[in-house]
Specification:
This protein is α+β, with helices and mostly antiparallel strands and 206 residues long. The chain has one domain: Muramoyl-pentapeptide Carboxypeptidase, domain 2 (2-Layer Sandwich), CATH 3.30.1380. The chain is built from five helices and seven strands; from the N terminus they run αβαββαβαβαββ. Strands 2-4-5-7-6 form a five-stranded mixed β-sheet, covered by helices on one side. A two-stranded antiparallel sheet has the order 1-3. Helix 3 packs across helix 5. The longest helix has 16 residues. The chain is globular, with a radius of gyration of 16 Å.
């Protein structure tokens, strides 16, 4: 536990290029406990067939986490909620992914860095009030045209409807969508957050 606090303190103390302290990376569920978390890279059941995380703790910059909490409140009124599949991703994990799938349009180069590496992007899906995942266009990280936002071919009407519910709620609170991945959304102020390579805290590991 002491090591975890040291790692978090290191993240909190990261400075931006302008020399001002970056907002903290925080556990999303510490901001909104009703958000469900199932980090896909905490197991080998993902597109890369490798486990990259040793934690099921979804971290985001604090302002981003609070924005996501507002989405959760909006969806709750409709009988739905969020499940997080990925959030902050250490830059070294980005590099490991790139070694497995280099040059794909679906993955940012570790040299440039991903918005996930800044704690400013989140991969989410829609669940009902009981936490049951709803039908969506594809599984997480299906790198295909079916995963493109607004895809029709090969996508059922119910999946398109659920994707629109999620998309509408996320956009309403200011998140920007990725056109290639229906599950991926970014904070509009992502540039203010530095690229970071600190491991996730170990609590919540499975």
């Amino acid at each position: 536990m002491r090591q975890d606090w040291w790692l978090l303190a290191a993240v909190w103390g990261v400075a931006t290029a302008a020399g001002t302290a970056a907002p903290a990376l925080v556990d999303v569920r510490s901001v909104e406990p009703s958000i469900r978390v199932d980090l896909r890279y905490n197991t080998a059941d993902n597109a890369f067939k490798r486990r990259f995380y040793r934690s099921n703790v979804a971290m985001l910059r604090e302002p981003v986490a609070r924005r996501l909490a507002r989405v959760q409140a909006r969806l709750r009124k409709q009988g739905y909620g969020l499940k997080v599949w990925d959030a902050y991703r250490p830059r070294s994990v980005q590099a490991a992914m790139w070694r497995i799938k280099p040059g794909t349009q679906y993955l940012a180069s570790p040299r440039k860095g991903s918005k996930h590496n800044r704690g400013a992007a989140v991969d989410v899906t829609l669940v009902d009030a009981a936490g049951v995942e709803q039908k969506m266009p594809t599984p997480h990280d299906e790198f295909s045209r079916r995963a493109h936002r607004g895809a029709v071919r090969g996508v059922t009407p119910l999946a398109r409807k659920n994707a629109r519910i999620l998309d509408t709620a996320m956009r309403a609170e200011g998140f920007r969508p990725n056109s290639l991945e229906w599950w991926h959304f970014e904070d509009p102020e992502w540039r203010r957050y530095p690229l970071t390579d600190v491991p996730l805290p170990s609590r919540g590991a499975r």
